[in-house]
Structure formats: C-alpha cells, structure tokens
Amino acid sequence: MASKLQKRVVGTLVLVSIGVIVLPDVLDGKKEHYQENYQSIPLRDDFDGTVSQMPVEEPEVIEVTAPDTQVNDTRSADTNAQAETEKSDPTPTASSTASVNDGDSAWMIRLGTFRNQENASRLVKQLRDKGYQAHILPRDIQPGDLAKVVVGPHVSKTTLESQLTDLQSLTGLKGQLRKFDPLTQ
C-alpha cells in the first residue's frame, strides 16, 4: 500500500513541479525586452557668439504733443465768462474743497478682525455673493496672523455710509468707515 501512495505522491509532485517550471514559460509567449529611450539634458546651451557681437541700434525718438484743451464753442457767452471768473478766483468754494478731499482718498468699511481665517473667508464669500466688494487684508496673510475683513475701497464716502446699515443687517457686525491707504494695507 505504501508503494501505491508513494507513487501517487511522487507523480503529483512531478506534475506540480513541471506546471510551476514549464507552464509560465509556455503561457508567457514571446519575450520582449523594453529599453527606455531618453536623451540627456545638456548642462548649458551652446552659445552663439555672433549674436553678442551685433551692434545695438539707437532708440528712436518720437515727439509727442499734448492735445489742445480748448473750451467748446457751443457754450453760451455767460457760461464762458463764469468759467473765466472761476479760473481767476484763487479762493476755493466749500463744494470744490469737498470734491477735492473726496477725490484725494478712497474709503473702506472694516467689518471685523478675525483670528480664524476660515471664518473671515466665509464672511468674504457671503458678502461677495450679495454683490459687495469684500476683501481680506493683508493680502499675503500667514497662518496665525489676524485677518481684517473690509468692504471697498470706494471713492465715494456717502455710498459706503449708505451700505453700513445693509451690512449690519446682513452680517450682524457694526462696520467702521475708514480712509483707505494702499501703502499700509
């Protein structure tokens, strides 16, 4: 009995070893070896010396004249006289100084200062969705810095003053109207 069992075990081992050794070669088919095609990158480009020896041309000079600033001929004579007196009057009126002061600077509304930058970003997104020009200052904010949420800048102070109540009802924050100085922002 042992001999029949031994023959079957040996036969099974021979068949399994042939299957393990020979079958992968037979089923694999034609063996191909792939070689990657590559080119080495030169450390420095070949320099064409003739380009550096070409003469540099002198720049062209073009004369530009300012356009004439003449008064329209369609104005009436008394309007021209009034314009002449305003030009010669050295003392500015109150309305002209207000427009000059408003024109010299821009304004912004500071809604709040946040330590959590995600909250500041969420508020800015909410304001932009409602049509406001909202920003986070400073622009290059680092983790751990305070983020200021502002609306603006705008050249009209009255426009921003009218937006204060809308912003307070929208966000629940009481904004502060401040002058915008781009050098300190």
Automatic annotation (TrEMBL):
<keyword id="KW-0131">Cell cycle</keyword>
<feature type="region of interest" description="Disordered">
    <location>
        <begin position="63"/>
        <end position="101"/>
    </location>
</feature>
<feature type="domain" description="SPOR">
    <location>
        <begin position="101"/>
        <end position="180"/>
    </location>
</feature>
<dbReference type="Pfam" id="PF05036">
    <property type="entry name" value="SPOR"/>
</dbReference>
<feature type="compositionally biased region" description="Low complexity">
    <location>
        <begin position="90"/>
        <end position="99"/>
    </location>
</feature>
<dbReference type="InterPro" id="IPR036680">
    <property type="entry name" value="SPOR-like_sf"/>
</dbReference>
<keyword id="KW-0132">Cell division</keyword>
<feature type="compositionally biased region" description="Polar residues">
    <location>
        <begin position="67"/>
        <end position="83"/>
    </location>
</feature>
<dbReference type="GO" id="GO:0051301">
    <property type="term" value="P:cell division"/>
</dbReference>
<dbReference type="InterPro" id="IPR052521">
    <property type="entry name" value="Cell_div_SPOR-domain"/>
</dbReference>
<protein>
    <submittedName>
        <fullName>Cell division protein DedD</fullName>
    </submittedName>
</protein>
<dbReference type="InterPro" id="IPR007730">
    <property type="entry name" value="SPOR-like_dom"/>
</dbReference>
